[in-house]
Amino acid sequence: MGSQQLSANDTKDSPMTDVDDAPDVGGIYSPDIETSDDYAPSDSESDTTVDEEYADDSRALSIDELPTFVISLTQANIDRSIEIPYGFWQRHIPMGAIEAGVSMVTERGMWRCTLKHNSKKIWVKHGWTRFKHKHNLVEGVRCHFKLVDALVVQFYVWFDRP
């Protein structure tokens, strides 16, 4: 593993990259290629809300007039990855934005994550492992994802711990 790099704008709590030749992107974490986030969900089971169960959130899940979804983490989420509810994405985010990935912003900084998808699911491909470790996420934590920018797909994320 390479040495960790800090830019002048980073603090000790800022996300870092461990790739020696990674460009300095001002404290924004960009996932490396060698990660254990190579999870692909099965078509038969899902640990997060699936489209059939995803209720229209046009009124119910709006915080500050911004659409929000919540995932209660299961052991499968801790071991593998999380899925973004497909119905949420269809209602609020352009489908072409999947290719660009997402930014997850917390009080500790910003993490870039890449996505994968099939005709029924969207899941975080790279970046989830570092995000969950940095935030000490465990089974039972409720993660709230508030969509703050649908064009660059940026979520503000906060947690309710058991």
TrEMBL record:
Q: Which UniProt keywords apply?
A: DNA-binding, Nucleus, Transcription, Transcription regulation
Recorded GO MF terms: DNA binding
Q: Origin, by domain of life? A: Eukaryota
Gene3D superfamilies recorded: DNA-binding pseudobarrel domain
Q: Where is it localised?
A: Nucleus
Biased amino acid composition, Acidic residues: 44-54
Q: Where is the signal peptide?
A: none
Q: What is this protein called?
A: TF-B3 domain-containing protein
Q: Has the keyword Ribosomal protein been applied to this entry?
A: no
**Stored SUPFAM superfamilies:** DNA-binding pseudobarrel domain
May I have one GO cellular component term? nucleus
Q: Predominant location of this chain?
A: nucleus
> Annotated region Disordered: where?
1-54
